[in-house]
Amino acid sequence: MGVMRFLALFILLFSVLIFQAAEARIRRYKWEVKYEYKSPDCFQKMVITINGQSPGPTILAEEGDTVIVELTNGLLTENVAIHWHGIRQIGTPWFDGTEGVTQCPILPGETFTYEYKVDRPGTYLYHAHYGMQREAGLYGSIRVPGLVLHTFDWIGEPQSLLIQGKGRYNCSLVSSPYVCNATSPQCSPMYSL
Length: 193
Hints:
It is a single chain. Helix content is 11%, strand content 27%. It is of the alpha/beta class. It has a four-stranded mixed beta sheet with strand order 2-1-4-6, with no helix packed on it. A hairpin with a 6-residue loop joins strand 1 and strand 2. The radius of gyration is 21 Å and the shape is elongated. The protein starts with a helix and ends in a 49-residue tail after the last strand.
């Protein structure tokens, strides 16, 4: 009787593993990184975009999926590397995106393909790992459903806050209407501070 129970348990576990492997998908993304003028908080500035978006597109994946990102560096004078913050890179440490440590930079005009497996649910961040590119807008989110989200409290008062890439800067603090335009469709009155 013990052997039958062990065999039944083995078959059950084996079928669960096969079912999970069949569920995993490949998520493909094709990105071009370049400079563009944007006004995410009504204040016009040069930002780095991915396919014209800043923040970049959200990567949506399920646990066990393989994410493939083909990234073309459209910046004329800067290298690029993307770090997948929170992705453990089990078996793929060369795709971690820390330039000069785990990866060579992606030179201007070059294309590099990242490929990694998402091994656990959560909300993660990808961002540039070169100079001030993250602050210039080269970042985005990775969402892998399966965890309960918790809210957080603000500490202090931000002067400009971007939510989903939009916000509102107090344009009365700037003298030039060409630099800060509160009526720009790129900025959003709903996020006023």
